[in-house]
Specification:
131 residues, mainly beta, 10-stranded antiparallel sheet, globular
């Protein structure tokens, strides 16, 4: 499938401001800016297996499109939500368990790059990955 492969973060746009809006402290924001995140995606129909590896942690997530699951961000923020396909875009809508606010994340392939976009409380950011 389109998303299959191993993707390594190449650059970010407005990511530190986004993390600040999410409530991530300055030390963790500085570290996260240089986390060397690598995402491996394996899609089989509506099922996904995603492995996220960084300088700080490695986790593996299995999800099915449209099915709600729980997830923790690297800073410990706990979320609940689901991914869905909207055309060529993989869109995740997650609710924070601590404050009930919504985080929206999208993944799309543009020009051979995986563009992961985030939106939280009026702040948007992107992380761009290359194979």
């Amino acid at each position: 499938m389109t998303f299959n492969g191993t993707w390594k973060v190449d650059r970010s746009e407005n990511y530190e401001k986004f993390m600040e809006q999410m409530g991530v402290n300055m030390v963790k924001r500085k570290l996260a800016a240089h986390d060397n995140l690598k995402i491996t995606i394996e899609q089989t129909g509506e099922k996904f297996h995603v492995k996220e590896s960084s300088n700080f942690r490695t986790i593996e997530i299995d999800f099915t499109l449209g099915v709600t699951f729980d997830y923790s961000l690297a800073d410990g923020t706990e979320l609940s939500g689901a991914w869905n396909m909207e055309g060529d875009t993989l869109k995740g809508v997650f609710t924070r368990k601590d404050n009930g606010k919504t985080l929206t994340t999208t993944r799309i392939i543009e020009g051979g790059e995986l563009v992961q976009s985030y939106s939280y409380e009026g702040v948007d950011a992107k992380r761009i990955f290359k194979k």
